[in-house]
Design a protein that fits this description.
The chain has twelve helices and nine strands. It has about 260 residues and is an alpha/beta fold. It has one domain (about 5, about 20-250): Aldolase class I (TIM Barrel). The longest helix has 17 residues, at about 245-265.
C-alpha cells in the first residue's frame, strides 16, 4: 500500500486527522530545509509538503512567492533538493510530497522526475498547474511507481469536474479553501464546511484542506469535515526569518507553532 494511503487508513481507524505543513525547499538553503522537516515531523506533523521553487508559481501568495524568489536567487537546483530529500526522508516518520509545477516535471521528463523523486523518498506529487484532462499520462506513471498524484479542487470547480478530479487522483484530494492565492487569513469562507461535506459524500479519498489556514480556530472549524489540514504561508513566513536570526531559535518557533496547531485537533 502506498505510504499516503497507509497513513490515512491508520488515521481514520483511530479517528484522527492529519496536519501537513508546507516548506519551501532551499529557503534559506537546503540544509535548513532538512532541519525544518525533521523538526516538524519530530513535533508530530503527519505529512510534509515540500515546495519546489519556480519562477512563475500558480496560486501562491506573496509569502511563498518571496520564498521561491529567494531560493532561486541562490541558484537552488532540483538535483540538490532531491539529494537533500534522499538524505532526509529516511530519518522522517511521515510521508513527503512535492508541490511542483508541471513545467518542471515536463522539462525533467515525466518518468525521470517520478523515478528521481521515488529514489529521494518522495511519496506523492501535487502538480497545481496540471489540468485534469491532461493528467492521465502522469497519473499512470505515478501509479506504476507507487506515487500518489494529488490534484486540486477549488470553490469554483463545477461539481461534475470535481468528481472527475477525484476519479483521477490518488492519496488524497487537495481542497483549496478560498478563491485566490495562498496566504494567512483571519477568516475563511462561510460555505467551506458545506462544500467539503458534499465532496466527502462523493469520494472515498481523504480530503485535505489548504490555503489560508493559520490559526487554531481554523483547525477547530475544519478538522471535523476534513481528513487533513495543510499549513503553508504561516510556516514559510517563520522560516524566512532564519536569514537574520539564530537558526535554532527559528526551528523552535516553527516546532512550537506546529504543536499549537496539533493541540487544536
Amino acid at each position: 500500500m502506498p505510504a499516503i494511503d497507509e497513513l490515512f487508513t491508520k488515521l481514520r481507524s483511530e479517528n484522527r486527522k492529519a496536519l501537513m505543513p508546507f516548506v519551501t525547499a532551499g529557503d534559506p538553503d537546503v540544509e535548513f530545509t532538512s532541519a525544518v522537516l525533521k523538526e516538524i515531523v519530530g513535533r508530530g506533523a503527519h505529512l510534509c509538503e515540500v515546495g519546489i521553487p519556480y519562477s512563475d508559481p500558480i496560486a501562491d501568495g506573496p509569502v511563498i512567492q518571496a520564498s521561491y524568489t529567494r531560493a532561486l536567487g541562490k541558484k537552488v537546483k532540483l538535483a540538490a533538493i532531491l539529494d537533500m530529500l534522499a538524505a532526509t526522508t529516511p530519518k522522517l516518520t511521515a510521508p513527503v510530497v512535492t508541490m511542483v509545477s508541471y513545467a518542471i516535471v515536463y522539462r525533467h521528463g515525466l518518468a525521470q522526475y517520478c523515478d528521481d523523486a521515488r529514489r529521494a523518498g518522495v511519496d506523492g506529487l501535487i502538480v497545481p498547474d496540471l489540468p485534469v484532462e491532461e493528467s492521465a499520462q502522469l497519473s499512470a506513471i505515478c501509479r506504476e511507481r507507487g506515487l500518489s498524484l494529488i490534484q486540486l479542487i477549488t470553490p469554483t470547480t463545477p461539481r461534475e469536474r470535481a468528481l472527475h478530479i477525484c476519479e483521477t487522483s490518488s492519496g488524497f484530494v487537495y481542497y483549496v479553501s478560498v478563491t485566490g492565492i495562498t496566504g494567512e487569513r483571519t477568516e475563511l469562507p462561510p460555505d467551506i464546511v458545506e462544500n467539503v461535506s458534499w465532496l466527502r459524500s462523493e469520494t472515498p479519498l481523504p480530503i485535505c484542506i489548504g490555503f489560508g489556514i493559520s490559526a487554531p480556530e481554523h483547525v477547530k472549524l475544519l478538522a471535523p469535515v476534513a481528513d487533513g489540514l495543510i499549513v503553508g504561508s504561516a510556516i514559510v513566513r517563520r522560516v524566512a526569518t532564519a536569514a537574520e536570526r539564530p537558526r535554532e531559535e527559528v526551528l523552535k518557533e516553527v516546532g512550537d507553532y506546529v504543536e499549537e496547531l496539533l493541540a487544536a485537533f
